[in-house]
Amino acid sequence: MKTLIQKLDLNSYINEFKKLLARDKDFFLEGDYNLHFKHIKELESVEFEPPNEIKNLDKELVHLSKEGVLHLEQSFEFVRICKYFSYLKKLKFEKSLREWLDKIVIKPEILELYEYFDEKAQIKDELDERLKAINQNISLKNEEIKLEFSRLLNSQNISSYLIDRQIHLINGEECLLLRGGFSSVLKCKILARSNSGGFYVLPLCIENLLSQKENLKSQKEEIYYEYAKKISSIFHKNLSFLKFINKAFDIFDSYSARVLLAKQKDYEFVLCDKSKDIVLTDFAHPVLKNAKKVSIDFKKQVLLITGVNAGGKSMLLKGIMSACFLSKYLLPIPINSSKSKIGSFKNFISIIEDPQNAKNDISTFAGRMLEFSKLSDKQDLLLGVDEIELGTDANEASCLYTVLISNLIKEKKKIIITTHHKKLALLLAKNEEVELVAALYDEKNARVSYEFLKGTIGKSYAFESALRYGIKADLVKEARELYGKDKEDLENIVSKNINLELELKSKIKKIENKEVKLDKLLQRLKEQEESSKNKLNALVKDLEFKYYEAIQEAKKALNFTELKDKQRSINKANELKSKIKIKDNNKTQTLNIGDFVKYNDIKGEIISINKNEALIQSDNISLRVPLSFLVKIQQQKQKTQSTVKFQKTNTASVSLDLHGLRSEEAIEKLDKFISDALIAGFEEVLVYHGIGTGKLAFAVKEFLKTHKSVKEFNDAPMNQGGFGAKIVKF
To answer: Which of 157, 440, 590, 615 is deepest in the core (most CB within 10 A)?
Structure first.
């Protein structure tokens, strides 16, 4: 546990938390996790005084269990705990915390002990006349001693022997400092010799007064012991209650420290659920000051963090693991809890530091392999590995770790990894359970941005980082030349191809999901059609039966000899006929294009009508349904007619350059540019966004995909910007 806290840089956080405790204890809470969370949230909404420092009473409880007698100071600690709970029970708590406190019933005989003690853990004088008299006598003796010292210091007989006129303290006793020969004028006891040859002496008259004072103190101690036995006797009878309330105090103390820390730091609590999802919104590692908040949606099994050096990859890994670890123990963190979700993990392992040192005699790579060999036995695991390829050849490590990680995925382990090597990222990215996050680099300002982009593989920017941290420009230039421009360009192209492949996989996944949804919809339509047929067949059979009954009545009428009986049978046949109700399916409502309709459970809008059929649009899926099956429904959003006037702009251009702009600024400018182009009547325009980190290009693509007026867009030809530009058609 301590090693994990140290690796995740949580030592200062835990120390801050422990300073808020009334007595030292482990930070985890035993018992019902969800109930503890409710209590903490309820305590957050109430103003309360936190408990003062309390001694650990485990030894005292053992002593009581053996019928021992506690000192008054020890008994006072139990009284303070009970007194604090009496205070809590008077506060206006609600729901479960109120119920918990109501179950703590303090017996009257313990409540009476509140009046025994003063704030210094002493028995009050007014409680016992004997104590009152003894304390008064002790005060008188102190005054007598003071007066006797004053008399001696002013005595003519010993003035010539006084080295100074001070009262000295030797071995806890007050005394005078005299020259030799004093025995002829003063009877006293020598306590010590001074460096100058003098004598520290205690006059016998003072010694007699001190002896009388000690006798009074002994009498006082005897009375104290009487009360100690009396209180301990009460405690013996209530030992089970004392054990319970001592433990309950630790629980509330843990609640109190958590709430105080949350209020001091403006932190929030997150209740872990049974999933393994990690969704962090506006989160930062708790030890970072003025940190840029990040948001992470990690629902798959592996999160692979790549990108720029010193861009926050390691701190992101530690931050995610810290959020899960602290939330497991109901400790507050800097986060937007209402928009976050954290799964519950039993085991946490961080492979972060280099294991190579003189003590363990093990290489870096061997240490990493030793750590990985122990992972299979760990169930319900959250694993963090920083710089996974550390300690061996990058190409070999990429292949080896790809196999190891794939096996851990099969074992349902949750893993966070940081790496600089694209080969490992490329191999792992092919797995459906791997999510990618890239640390970004601000090329315009030549610095890391501490921002992260999901779904892409980042560049390390090693040369740029070297310049930033003080490496001479000529040395970096020489390194670039040695590395080779072609190799750097090839690496950029590989990165782009990887990202394009990932984007394509994402689109294919969306299409597959849409197909699954369509299959379900078609299956539901088939089931509804089958149900309609069954209902129709049942109706036909019912009509046939009723028709048969009517015919039988008519036949009976032909056998009657009297006209009156015939007429009666005909009337009965007509009556049966009138009960037959045939639903006229040919009558339909008047439906038009744009009407909102319902077909069984499916709702949509009519986009075209062809004879007896209508084409309806529902959840981005078009369905052709007979008009007779549709029921017109109220339109959810009323369309209001409005007149839009616009004037053709003279400043419209067929191209737009977005280089150097932030994503928000670029999208705002692009939106206006498209509007101007549409008003001007352009059918095709050119948008330059550059390659860079890929963040701006991603934002432009996402915007163009959702714009209603954009029919299609593609990368521009190489002579017009290539991957760094888009041809947009309207």
So the answer is: 440
Q: Of 89, 74, 65, 80, whose CA–CA distance to 113 is shortest? A: 80
pLDDT of residue 564: 55
From residue 692, give the alpha-carbon distance in Å to each of 697, 702, 725: 8, 17, 12
Specify the CATH number for 127-224; select among 3.30.1330.40, 1.10.1420.10, 1.20.1250.20, 3.40.50.1000: 1.10.1420.10
Q: Where are the alpha helices (DSSP H) in 170-289?
A: 204-237, 239-265
Instruction: Compute the C-alpha angle 251/270/314, nearest 5°.
Output: 110
Instruction: Report pLDDT digits (tens) over 138-172.
Output: 999 999 999 999 999 999 889 999 999 999 999 88
Rounded Cα–Cα distance for residues 20 and 267 (Å): 15
Q: Amino acid identity of 420? A: H
**Separation between Cα atoms, residue 379 and residue 546, nearest integer Å:** 69
Contact 322, 348 (CB under 8 A): no
Look at strands 434-442 and 655-657 and give their pairing: unpaired
Locate 299 and state its tokens: 């629902």
Query: What phi-psi label fits residue 310: left (phi over 0), alpha (psi between -120 and 50 degrees) or beta?
Result: left
Judged by phi (left if over 0) then psi (alpha if -120 to 50, else beta), residue 721 lies in left
DSSP secondary structure code for residue 720 in this structure: G
pLDDT at 637: 47
Whole-Å CA distances, 130 to 50, 116, 136, 565:
37, 14, 10, 123
Angstrom distance (rounded) from CA 429 to CA 419: 13
**C-beta separation of 123 from 72 below 8 A:** yes
For residue 337 the two structure tokens come to: 């809890």
Cβ–Cβ under 8 Å, residues 663 and 695: yes
**Rounded distance between C-alpha atoms, residue 549 and residue 693, angstroms:** 83
Split at pLDDT 50, 70, 90, the class of 201 is: very high
Pairing of strands 302-307, 294-298: unpaired
CATH 3.30.1370.110 maps onto the chain at 655-729
Give the tens place of pLDDT for each residue, 492-532.
Answer: 545 555 556 556 666 677 777 777 777 777 777 777 777 77
Q: Kindly report, as residue ranges, where domains of CATH 1.10.1420.10 are found in the chain.
A: 127-224
How many CB atoms are closer than 10 A to CB 693? Answer: 23
Q: Report pTM.
A: 0.63
Interval 82-116: pLDDT, tens:
999 999 999 988 888 999 999 999 999 998 998 99
Residues of the chain with CATH 3.40.50.300: 278-483
Give first-to-last CA distance, the chain, whole Å. Answer: 60
The owner of tokens 């001091």 is 264
142 three-class SS: helix
3-state secondary structure of 498: helix
Domain 655-729: which CATH number of 3.40.50.80, 3.90.1200.10, 3.40.50.620, 3.30.1370.110: 3.30.1370.110
**CA–CA gap between residue 714 and residue 225 (Å, rounded):** 93
Residue in 364, 418, 363 with CA at minimum distance from that of residue 387? 418
- Helix and strand totals (H; E) in the chain: 21, 22
Six token digits for residue 541: 């059979």
Cβ atoms 727, 684 nearer than 8 A: yes
3-class DSSP string for 679-707: HHCCCEEEEECCCCCCHHHHHHHHHHHHC
